[in-house]
What does this fold into?
Amino acid sequence: MIMTLFADRVRQRASLIQKILGSVLRFALTILLKPVLHPRFSVGFQRRWMGMVASTTLKARNVDSYDDALAGVRCRHYQPQVLSEKSSEAGFAGTVLYLHGGAYVAGNPDSHKALTSYLAKFADAHVVVPDYRLAPEFACPAAINDVVAVYKALLEQGVPPEQLSFAGDSAGGGLALATLQTLKATEIPLPSSVVLYSPWVDLTLSELNDTDQEAMLSKAWLAYAADVYADKNTKAPECSPIYGDLTGLPPVLIHVGSDEILLNDSHRVCAALNQAGTLARLQVYPQRWHVFQLHAGLLADADISLLTSAQFLHQHWLVSKK
It folds into this structure.
């Protein structure tokens, strides 16, 4: 009885701490990041500021990281120092090709080090993060071409597609789907599965979620980024993959926060994927903001999301291996 009461108090205290931490993180993003992600600031300044804010996030312990280019594209690699006993016994170490967000105009492997290093840790995976070309210097399809080149390089190195997965957040989520459509059209073997965090799949911005709870993004910034990336052709499938061919793609897991402007993109693309015969599952995290997984190692929901993602990846790597 005493132990049960003690455990309940510990859980209540942990829940309260997480609630306070969530409020602090949301406030910090709203004050420090959202005002800068706006067309009134230059892209160069936005990139530097985002890097400064991202420097406060935590890289996972016991995960090695190094830079090594693939197909001429600079890539950051993350890999656990020691695979878990379960993964070692299974005789595999999967690979995740992770595409960072940043509305196609910002972001890089450094800005996503917490998310990608913890994903590597939880999934016992080799996570590869390409530093793909950004707009406005390079419009679509430069980013797609970079990702295709990296993916083909991994295949050429002997990584079987059955043990390879795509993952991405925000613009990186849209880029993942657009790249898969390109791979399928050119008859290149597809990866085993896909994980998307708050994917941006419709650059026309036709069905944004009308919310005042968005902690990071603004319609003005998204509209600017969409125009310079898509060269004003925002409905083209390579820019807005929700309008492309979604048949025959690998199973997809989508995680999104309830309090974000891009919530509807996740609902719509999940429905469109299932309607096209591609298995897709959506999980909405209450009271969470855009790509809250960036706070892995601090925010419990971020860790839970990545752990769930790791289980999804393992299920498909193991099924494919059989």
In short: The longest helix spans residues 2-33. The chain has one domain: 2-321. The mean pLDDT is 92. The CA atoms of residues 251 and 279 lie 5 Å apart.
